[in-house]
């Protein structure tokens, strides 16, 4: 009785064929009882009755051949029956896990009778001869051919292949497992021991490793996303050190800035993070850029990385916050549901998208699973919606793999999130490391150990290798660089490249890494390396990179100053005037002042107004060089503390009752370079400045003699309250200015997508993207052939190269070596020389650059 | 080693290749799951080309194709009296009237059908780009997959008409403006892959540049560059590795690009080749020139073209104020080009096989935001009494009615479908049309089943939402 009620209340929807009669009719308790009684009376009979002669006549004829269970019956069951009657589900009480349960039948009695097809309820239902009882309830009905096969199978005695079952499926790739490393050839890298076993099994004799230059180009791109320079290539090739390839990989992986910039794109795709995109208007989306870059820069262990995304701080919350569009949104796309879908896809290779609207048709996940996970992120328990219609049922919090543990049923969301993070990242969870290890393998080899990489409920083509790599990652404290090194130093990775089009999807056999295509960012950066023309202004807010800190970091410690020791708390609105005499031993080659003033300022150098700023807290960068000389210089600043309503106060006496925070911060970067040596003449705001609040004509001029001025009051360091500016501000601002003057230094990963990168496959990160399509398209080719971006880059690059005038042959050699890692052949040199001319001229160089960067050898990773 | 050239004629290829081959070669692209009746539906196609004329920003139906009681401006007039701020005019069809300012389009009404009963989705607090996304993909964002634009579905399913031309061309929208990111999110082939994505021409007057050598490069130099490139490729030692899929696909794509730039079809992009008298008729602004470009591209064999009046928040049809004044100007920019497009195609014998669809994401009303029975949060101030021309017009976002004009491509001639109320709010009262069915009708015209789906991550993704679109047979001759 209860089962019938349960079935009736669990009416579900097929998204293709909408069912107009649904559960709301069942909401009334009385209605439930009435219907249940009616059905009970109607169906609770021994057996199901029998077919009339007319109905038997209407049955499709039986197939006339001996039916093979595995190839003929199994597919029918899988396509049309197990959704409701398999994998632990038992609609109508019927489970078809095995012959036993099939024979047992369900609430209406036995479903089949061996040898008696015309007496088998199951056949009658799928053949559609019982108007009120047609199976399957959802999806395509069985064809007459399929019915005929079933009919014959029943009459032939229900032969069942004992190796086949439709019961609940164990999750694959979940339990920890450490396979023993096979014996065999003396390979240093365990990856190759596992691959040797594989090759033997498949009768493959692997070829020799690729040449140094080919290897180096791959390794550079795969670790830091940049091409090796000709010098680096030559040095690597000529080195006779043993283990040089391993050493190269380690050296590349320790280039932290470049590593972070490269992998930023990979993780931006996976974590659906971007600097521009849908949802930012209306505040419906949040970046995790700063957190992510930092995590990559410091090589944050992967378990901590995942934990901080699942149970986020403010900085990392953007991933699980999702993308919220203005207005009313489909229930399956509520932020909590997005979080559940994204976490399970990215970290565990589970597709909960289908199961967010209804029980999934493509895997065994159910609506209650996606809601159970989403519930963890919800402030209040979620009501379950099926196909965007409310069911009246509330979700029960649950974790996808009860084998690993449970989430406490607490109203405290912080506790739930912490527990979820712990569960997903615990060592018992073998799914987490396998998923990431598989993604890395796919990235470097062109195809994963499991494909698609987002479906980890599959067996790998080398399961031992997958399991071992996963265990290895965990054993090394989830250090992804260890896994990267394992793969990149394996002989398997060093094999000659394989044509990706030559492999069938089914029955894949690994014969080497596939030929891959450079990503949009790799291509753009390679073009920048080749031409010197890249980007100048990053869109990513990542603070100062290590390189920038080294190059532009502070050499002196500045402080906020004012004419009042308590100015950081309160100072009257008004105008103050400051001076400093700066002694420069030599004429500076560059002199830039970074000034931040609460609220506004004017800067004078030797009496000349050099700049001003009113945009507090935006720092101003002011060029002082035109007016500085060797010897003594006078730097003067007129600083203004606005009224509380943020307007400029009149000049004159300070206004009482107008107190609000005031402060001036200056960092002047003054350098002279000769050859390799640099003279640092930086100066800062500190007590070495003198100040007055009395405006006297000519106060800013060098010849003015200040009288009665007092030393300025230092208030505290840059990051003090109330301003709390980042300590990396100085380095970041100077680095930014420098790269603006030297375009090409900012990597493509740090800027928002432009039409060129979009055309080359940089995705719109509205959804999680785990693999980019790499096939070349006509629109891409059009963008490359005559698009403005490429044309501009080539033009400017060619102009520079032509100007350098290194000689045509030298130019051709160096471009080729930089672009594709080898010298041109005689024929190539001849062709290039023709187009460039004996003395490199701009148009020829442009066209040569274009053709070179369109070469498969350039764009592809061989 | 000589370069192996494979002649990839896309349509032949699609016709003959098995799904497995398609999959393998497409390296993971979605496979079509054809509805059982697809072959049958294909045979009934009445159009080979689709042109969408997109009135971006919410085109008020009562000020254009569905005029109501006219109330001229008088200081202090009640806002609820504003149904139409223009008088009616006759059209070539007796029982259909338009709003003043659309005389030329009125004269060609007998070449098509007017739907007055289009109603937009109920998406809550209104964001233009969200409704535009739903109009163009059939699905309301956010979605779990990157949704393809209807143009991409058509490009992918039917392939290009002229293999040298991009199958899907989008004219007139710039993306570095407000809601640009949201616009980008549906100007895409999504999971179908960028081979089927829109070829974007933001400035119709500069269209020729997009199919010419890069700025400042003479045709001779361009050809020389191409020749040099081909020679380099042919002599590349990489050839020793043998041919491979990535290389083939790269070279093929470069061939396609070169072919377009060298083909006669490229001339179609050059508006300066249009005879001046004709050019002048279309030249009412960027939209008008876009219509001219669309006509030329249709003649050259494009498959799907969209010309937009351009969505810029609060500009063009997005009239949050001064509705009347702005509509007067807008109608001037759209009237002559729309009519001329219809007449030109008819004169060239192309109208019968070209489906033109003029539409907008929703309509406007003086008072109601959303639908009368499902109002949504207000965004527009509208005083009860109209004291200033600023408040004279249709300013609120109204989703319960909308006009869609259809010409050519097997559509009934001189026909009216649907009815809206004569009283405020002028909502749909008969034969409601929803986006699923409008799309189904467009698909039916070109011979695609509304239940056609493409496989993405094992999910069948239908060209109309969940396969629920039903073509409106009343629209077809």
Summarize this entry quickly.
The complex is a heterodimer of chains A (862) and B (477). Chain A has 862 residues and is α+β, with helices and mostly antiparallel strands. Chain A has 32 helices and 17 strands.
Alpha-carbon distance between the two ends of chain A: 66 Å
Cα shape of chain B = globular
Most extensive interface between two protein chains, with residue counts? A-B, 85 and 81 residues
- Biggest β-sheet: strands ordered side by side in the sheet of chain B: 8-7-9-2-10-16-6-17
Major beta sheet summary of chain B: 8 strands, mixed
Q: In this structure, how is the largest beta sheet of chain A organized?
A: 6 strands, antiparallel
Counting helices, strands and paired strands, the structural category of chain B is alpha/beta
Number of strands of chain B: 21
Mean pLDDT of chain B comes to 90
Can you give the helix content of chain B as a percent range?
Answer: 25-40%
Low-confidence stretches of chain A: 1-26, 42-46
Structural class of chain A: alpha+beta
Using the alpha-carbon principal axes, give the shape of chain A. Answer: globular
| Proportion of strand residues of chain A | 5-15%
């Amino acid at each position: 009785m209860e089962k019938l009620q349960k079935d009736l209340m669990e009416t579900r929807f097929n998204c293709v064929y909408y069912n107009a009669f649904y559960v709301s009719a069942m909401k009334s308790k009385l209605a439930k009882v009435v219907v249940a009684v009616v059905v009970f009376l109607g169906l609770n009979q021994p057996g199901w009755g029998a077919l009339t002669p007319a109905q038997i006549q209407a049955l499709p004829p039986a197939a006339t051949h001996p039916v093979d269970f595995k190839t003929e019956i199994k597919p029918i069951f899988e396509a049309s029956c197990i959704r409701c009657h398999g994998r632990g589900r038992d609609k109508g009480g019927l489970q078809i896990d095995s012959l036993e349960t099939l024979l047992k039948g369900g609430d209406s009695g036995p479903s089949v009778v061996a040898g008696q097809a015309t007496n088998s309820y199951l056949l009658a239902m799928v053949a559609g001869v019982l108007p009120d009882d047609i199976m399957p309830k959802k999806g395509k009905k069985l064809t007459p051919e399929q019915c005929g096969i079933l009919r014959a199978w029943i009459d032939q005695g229900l032969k069942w292949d004992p190796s086949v079952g439709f019961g609940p499926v164990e999750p694959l790739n979940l339990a920890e497992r450490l396979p023993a490393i096979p014996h065999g050839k003396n390979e240093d890298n365990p990856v190759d021991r596992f691959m040797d076993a594989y090759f033997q099994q498949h009768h493959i004799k692997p070829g020799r490793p690729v040449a140094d230059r080919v290897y180096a180009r791959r390794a550079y791109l795969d670790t830091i996303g940049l091409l090796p320079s000709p010098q680096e290539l030559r040095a690597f090739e000529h080195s006779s050190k043993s283990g040089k390839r391993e050493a190269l990989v380690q050296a590349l992986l320790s280039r932290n800035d470049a590593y972070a910039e490269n992998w930023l794109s990979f993780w931006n795709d996976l974590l659906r993070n971007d600097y521009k995109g849908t949802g930012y208007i209306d505040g419906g989306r949040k970046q995790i850029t700063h957190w992510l870059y930092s995590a990559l820069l410091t090589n944050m262990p992967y378990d901590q990385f995942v934990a901080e995304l699942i149970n986020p701080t403010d900085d990392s919350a953007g991933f699980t916050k999702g993308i919220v569009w203005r207005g009313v949104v489909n229930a399956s796309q509520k932020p909590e549901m997005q979080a559940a879908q994204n976490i399970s896809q990215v970290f565990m290779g589970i597709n909960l998208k289908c199961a967010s609207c209804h029980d999934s048709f493509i895997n065994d996940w159910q609506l209650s699973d996606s809601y159970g996970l989403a519930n963890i992120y919800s402030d209040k328990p979620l009501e379950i919606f099926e196909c965007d219609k409310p069911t009246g049922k509330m979700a029960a919090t649950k974790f996808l793999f009860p084998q690993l543990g449970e989430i406490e049923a607490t109203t405290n969301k912080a506790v739930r999130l912490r527990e979820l993070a712990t569960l997903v990242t615990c060592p018992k969870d073998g799914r987490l490391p396998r998923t990431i290890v598989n993604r890395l393998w796919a990235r470097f080899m062109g195809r994963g150990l499991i494909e698609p990489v987002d479906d980890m409920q599959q067996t790998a083509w080398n399961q031992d290798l997958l399991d071992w790599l996963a265990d290895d990652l965990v054993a090394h404290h989830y250090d992804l660089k260890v896994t990267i090194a394992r793969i990149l130093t394996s002989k398997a990775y060093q094999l000659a490249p394989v044509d990706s089009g030559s492999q069938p999807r089914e029955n894949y056999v690994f014969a080497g890494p596939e030929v891959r295509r450079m990503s949009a960012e790799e291509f753009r950066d390679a073009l920048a390396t080749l031409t010197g023309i890249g980007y100048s202004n990053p869109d990513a807010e990542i603070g100062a990179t290590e390189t920038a800190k080294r190059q532009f970091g502070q050499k002196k410690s500045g402080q906020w100053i004012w004419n009042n020791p308590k100015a950081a708390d309160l100072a009257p609105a008004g105008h103050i005037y400051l001076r400093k005499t700066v002694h420069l031993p030599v004429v500076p080659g560059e002199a830039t002042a970074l000034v931040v003033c609460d609220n506004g300022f004017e800067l004078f150098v030797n009496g000349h107004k050099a700049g001003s700023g009113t945009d507090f807290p935006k720092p101003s960068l002011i060029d002082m060089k035109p007016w500085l000389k060797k010897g003594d210089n006078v730097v003067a600043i007129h600083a203004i503390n606005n009224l509380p309503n943020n307007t400029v106060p009149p000049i004159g006496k300070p206004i009482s009752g107008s107190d609000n925070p005031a402060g001036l911060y200056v960092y002047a970067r003054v350098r002279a370079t000769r050859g390799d040596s640099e003279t640092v003449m930086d100066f800062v705001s500190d007590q070495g400045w003198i100040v007055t609040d009395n405006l006297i004509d000519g106060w800013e001029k060098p010849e003015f003699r200040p009288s009665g001025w007092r030393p300025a009051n230092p208030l505290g360091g840059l990051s003090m309250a109330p301003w709390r500016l980042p300590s990396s501000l100085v380095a970041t601002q100077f680095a930014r200015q420098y790269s603006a003057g030297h375009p090409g230094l900012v990597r493509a990963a740090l800027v928002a997508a432009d039409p060129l990168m979009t055309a080359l496959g940089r995705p719109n990160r509205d959804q999680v993207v785990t693999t980019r399509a790499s096939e070349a398209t006509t629109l891409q080719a059009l963008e490359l052939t005559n698009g403005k971006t490429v044309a501009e880059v080539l033009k400017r690059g060619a102009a520079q190269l032509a100007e350098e005038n290194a000689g045509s042959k030298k130019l051709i050699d160096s471009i080729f070596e930089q672009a594709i890692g080898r010298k041109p052949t005689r024929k190539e040199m001849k062709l290039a020389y023709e187009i460039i001319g004996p003395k490199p001229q701009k148009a020829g160089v442009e066209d040569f650059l274009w053709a070179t960067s369109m070469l498969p050898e350039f764009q592809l990773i061989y | 080693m000589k370069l192996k050239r494979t002649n990839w004629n896309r349509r032949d290829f699609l016709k003959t290749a098995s799904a497995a081959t398609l999959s393998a070669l497409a390296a993971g692209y979605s496979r079509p799951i054809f509805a059982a009746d697809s072959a049958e539906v294909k045979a009934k196609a009445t159009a080979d080309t689709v042109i969408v004329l997109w009135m971006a920003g919410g085109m008020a139906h009562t000020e254009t194709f569905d005029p109501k009681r006219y109330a001229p401006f008088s200081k202090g007039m009640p806002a609820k009296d504003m149904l139409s701020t223009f008088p009616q005019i006759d059209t070539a069809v007796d029982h259909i009237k338009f709003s003043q300012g659309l005389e030329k389009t009125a004269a060609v009404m007998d070449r098509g059908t007017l739907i007055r009963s289009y109603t937009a989705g109920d998406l809550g607090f209104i964001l233009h780009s969200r409704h535009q996304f739903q109009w163009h993909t059939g699905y309301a964002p956010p979605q779990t997959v990157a949704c393809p634009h209807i143009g991409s579905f058509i490009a992918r399913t039917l392939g290009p008409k002229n293999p040298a031309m991009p199958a899907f061309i989008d004219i007139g929208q710039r993306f570095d403006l407000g809601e640009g990111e949201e616009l980008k999110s549906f100007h895409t082939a999504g999971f179908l892959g960028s081979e089927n994505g829109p070829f974007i021409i933001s400035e119709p007057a500069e269209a020729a540049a997009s199919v010419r050598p890069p700025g400042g490069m003479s045709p001779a130099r361009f050809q020389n560059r191409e020749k040099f490139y081909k020679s380099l490729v042919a002599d590349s030692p990489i050839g020793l590795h043998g041919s491979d899929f990535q290389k083939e696909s790269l070279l093929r794509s470069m061939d396609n690009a070169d072919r377009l730039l060298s083909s006669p079809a490229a001339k179609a992009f050059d508006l300066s080749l249009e005879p001046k008298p004709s050019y002048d008729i279309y030249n009412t602004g960027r939209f008008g020139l876009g219509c001219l470009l669309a006509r030329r591209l249709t003649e050259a064999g494009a498959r799907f073209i969209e010309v937009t009046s351009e969505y810029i928040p609060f500009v063009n049809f997005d009239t949050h104020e001064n509705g009347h004044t702005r509509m007067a100007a807008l109608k001037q920019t759209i009237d002559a080009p729309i009519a001329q497009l219809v007449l030109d195609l008819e004169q060239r014998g192309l109208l019968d096989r070209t489906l033109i669809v003029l539409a907008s994401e929703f309509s406007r009303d003086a008072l109601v935001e959303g639908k009368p029975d499902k109002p949504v949060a207000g965004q527009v101030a509208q005083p009860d009494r109209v004291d200033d021309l600023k408040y004279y017009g249709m300013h609120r976002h109204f989703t319960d009615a909308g006009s869609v004009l259809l010409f050519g491509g097997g559509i009934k001639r001189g026909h009216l479908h649907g009815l809206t109320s004569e009283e405020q709010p002028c909502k749909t009262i008969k034969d409601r049309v929803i986006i699923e069915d409008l799309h189904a009708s467009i698909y039916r015209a070109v011979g695609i089943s509304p239940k056609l789906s493409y496989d993405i991550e094992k999910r069948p993704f239908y060209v109309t939402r969940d396969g629920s679109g039903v073509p409106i047979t009343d629209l077809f001759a």
